[in-house]
Amino acid sequence: MNAFSRLAIAALLPVALGSMAFSATEAEEPFTLIQDALETTLEDWIWQKRIVVVFADNPNDPRFTEQMRLIEDRPEVLLERDVVVITDTDPKARSAVRQELRARGFMLVVLAKDGSVVIRKPAPWDMREISRSIDKLPLRQQEIRER
Asked: Sheet containing 34-36: which strands, arranged edge to edge?
């Protein structure tokens, strides 16, 4: 896990824990919004969470830092939509996530709960754009109606 990911997780952990307190039991591990691609796979989250993956070839890529800033500024938007964020800034490590999505350079990928790719973008997206793409999904529409 790189230093930026650790810092992002440390900054968001209280928000994630506070937002998830209503659904977590004492036996479950606390949910962490941002996961490192070397420590998880896409399969780990299928039918549990929607997945936002942020790729870069280096953690200092300005597009990566901008995307992570946008996520950190409004994590509640993603938590409300049942999202996990997976980051991968080390192409040499060849994570399973990077290999499966065939990422090169900066890329933002949003996946539905069934694992299908909703969008791929070569530039950062703000939370409004990401949330709109998620809110158009049939399963999300059903979740909204059932509230």
From this structure: 34-36, 83-88, 50-55, 107-111, 117-121
**Residues 53, 45: Cα–Cα separation, whole Å:** 12
pLDDT for residue 19: 46
> Phi/psi at 85 (nearest 5 deg)?
-105, 125
Q: What are 80's strand-pairing partners? A: none
Count of Cβ atoms closer than 10 Å to residue 10 Cβ: 10
Task: Please state, rounded to an integer, the average pLDDT across all residues of the chain.
Answer: 87
Of 23, 46, 24, 45, nearest in space to 34 by CA: 45
Alpha helices (H) in 44-146, listed in sequence order: 62-73, 75-80, 96-101, 127-135, 138-146
Pairwise CA distance, residues 22 & 1, whole Å: 28
> CB-based contacts of 128: which residues, under 8 Å, 6+ apart?
none
Q: Where are the domains of the chain?
A: 3-146
Tracing tokens 């069934």 back to the chain, one arrives at 114
* Overall pTM surpassing 0.85 (yes/no): no
CATH homologous superfamily of 3-146 equals Glutaredoxin (3.40.30.10)
